[in-house]
Amino acid sequence: TETVSKNFIEIEIDKDLASGRFDHVQTRFPPEPNGYLHIGHAKSIILNNDIAKEYNGKFNLRFDDTNPTKEKEEFVNSIIEDVKWLGGEFEDRLFFASNYFEEMYEKAVMLIKKGKAFVCDLSADEIREYRGDFKTPGKESPYRNRSVEENLKLFEDMKNGLFEDGSHVLRAKIDMASPNINMRDPVIYRVARMTHHNTGDKWCIYPMYDFAHPIEDAIEGITHSLCTLEFEDHRPLYDWVVRECEYKNPPRQIEFAKLYLTNVVTGKRYIKKLVEDGIVDGWDDPRLVSIAALRRRGYTPEAIRNFVKLAGVSKADSSIESAMLEYCIREDLKLKKSRIMAVLDPIKLIIDNYPEGQSELCTMPNNLENPELGEREIEFGRELYIEREDFMEVPPKKYFRLFPGNEVRLMGAYFVTCTSVEKDENGEIIAVHATYDPETKSGSGFNARKVKGTIHWVNAKTALNVEMRLYENIVDEEKGKLDENGNLNLNPNSLTILKNCYVESCLKDAKAYDSFQFVRNGFFCVDAKDSRPDALVFNRIVSLKSSFKL
Ligand code: ATP
Ligand code: MG
Ligand code: MG
Predict the structure, then answer these.
(1) Residue 547 pLDDT > 70
(2) Is 531 a domain residue?
(3) With a threshold of 0.90, does the pTM exceed it?
């Protein structure tokens, strides 16, 4: 295990433990179930999970499901799956903020009784207008000085459905002159007749995020409530709610910078449009960076974890190159996966001096850099497929692959010399002909002469006919993410579908998410949505080469 210096959050936690402010650590990941998780959420999951683990504390998964409009059961299930997949160890600590509605209501009543909250009849527009801005102080609501009795009665009426949606709100009574706008009598409850995925039609009033979130944290005994930077200005309100609601174990909010990737689309709005316009095949399209998409593409939790660690935790916003994510998956798979021969753009290679009907087995290491992966046998025969680009009739200088008269090594098999090329009436190449030298079998120790080129191949008789999907960034990287109208600059070549590709027959039982290195072509995985046992579909996870250097 490596020693890394502590991030600023760990340093704060160390201080809290040293000063006795806390004697243990409890964290949480609090998603709103209103969409799929993306790579940015992975940062929060891994950060919270790992901090709990590091300090022998606990980590909760809590759905912040206090705003029913956009929340769906479908998202709850996908989020649970993704958090588990990423290694979030919440075990049985799965919570729903909606289960705390009763306590939130009671705390609101408590605030009213303390004279710290009032029912306000101003409209949303009026409230905004009265609030002022950072230059203008706010103006007090004419309803601010209602009596406790009147407020209790009105709040109960709000709860009992006597008021129209939007007509009344409960507001915290704090300070309309505060330089922090969040403290200017923020709304803490609103009337909204919406069916909630958990509580159904039980409630027609719902708490606002800034009131609900600190209560959720306090109820669960969260010690360190880690959130993203945009909530920094909300911290005084967070602390106010915890204090005025008289929680004895005030959690501490600490903010960190969001994870952003250059030229990567994470916004729900954009992804929704891509799905609706049929540009991507759902939220798990392998070109997206939702966790589901990354999983389908063939990313591993280890690679994502490593990426998040490399990105680090900081207090300043910055963007990370998506090439770093690719670097992480390459590094993760490099030694773990078998290196298989697959031909993406096949032409036939016929070995004319190899006896018809004959075949033999060649033994190949599964991964030259990792002997632990063992060996496999490949059937060699008279008719093979090689990559179209591994043959040229008229080669340029320094082309060491197949051309008439040249000899190359067929990986794991024999030396072959190209003798001729066969074309159809349009001049298209149908087959390349060659002869092999029986003395040169790989592993035989033959070293009488050397060749400069080695090419991969598959056996035409036994290879599996498969589909390959190659991906590029969905965003045009030259133009940048957005055009002047705020629309995505789409890369027209983000998906290439190759039919009639061939892979070694050893992949016949490959299952969804299984991944391999296809020599010279990249890392690929079996697509979980469209692949069938008799018609395999592979996604290219990433190519082998990269300009990215750590
Ligand atoms: P989005 O709008 O992208 O879905 P969100 O903030 O609405 O993001 P939530 O469901 O509220 O999503 O997020 C759950 C947790 O994940 C929050 O604590 C939030 O701060 C954190 N989070 C969201 N996006 C990022 C990001 N890009 N980097 C790090 N943490 C993030
Ligand atoms: Mg969200
Ligand atoms: Mg949010």
Answers:
(1) no
(2) no
(3) yes
